[in-house]
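Session log. Operator J.P. requested a structure for one protein chain; no other inputs attached. Running the standard single-chain path with token output.
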Amino acid sequence: MNIEKYPYASKRNHKTFLFKSVGPKGTIKKIVSFRLINEQYQNIYNLSFGDQGKTKSAFNDRVVSNNGDRTKVLATVALTVREFFKHFPNAIAYMRGSTPSRTRLYQMEISAHLMEIYEFFDIYGINYGKPEKFRTGTNYEAFLILLNKKKP
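Structure written below.
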């Protein structure tokens, strides 16, 4: 994506990423985490992110930072998704906002950058518990992201 992004650091497991949001409210530490949803489904990871808590691994995904850099933060999260898939190419990332309004926000950002996203990923929206190829103008409960294996 041709959007400004923050530099990030990855933990050795390539499932946790750290970066800093910089804006009118100061510097806010952010964490992006990919966690295995269920041992039975060894390739489905929950993608979550938020402000770092009191410990380096804890974060709050419900806080509203309002640091004036939402697009840059979400573009950085998208960059960490690409990094995650470099190490786990057969994974599926499951993403759902911590609130319905956040899920809607993610949907709007996906719609706004859909052609760029399709360069790297296949994305599905979950509607009534069933995945379908992402379509703009459709409200989804959550999203599935897979590496687009058609691209080199």
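Operator note: The radius of gyration is 15 Å.
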